[in-house]
Design goal:
alpha+beta, two-stranded antiparallel ribbon, about 35% helix, about 10% strand
């Protein structure tokens, strides 16, 4: 009626597929973070002004005698990869007359 060898082989295939699926999900979940366009200063494109290119990020730096203060990033121009929307079509707003 039932062939025990075929049942054991089928159970082995199902179990092996289940284990392979669990392992591949863990690996893909770890590398699922999207890549971000980073400038040479280490900040994202969102922190740079589109027109002037200045970086608006601030970081904590040490001054004398253990004091700390917020200091503006010294980056004056975005040097990272060009965004796709600027590559294919330049920004049209605000209109230049």
């Amino acid at each position: 009626m039932f062939d025990p060898i075929s049942l054991i082989a089928g159970a082995g295939l199902v179990g092996g597929g289940w284990v392979a699926g669990r392992i591949s999900r863990r690996r893909s979940a770890q590398s699922a973070q999207p890549a971000q366009a980073m400038c040479g200063c280490g900040h994202n494109l969102a922190l740079h002004d589109r027109e002037s290119g200045d970086c608006h990020s601030e970081s904590m730096r040490k001054t004398g005698y253990g004091l700390k203060e917020w200091a503006r990033c010294g980056c004056r121009r975005y040097t990272g990869p060009t965004p796709l929307e600027d590559f294919f079509t330049p920004p049209t707003l605000p209109p230049v007359s």
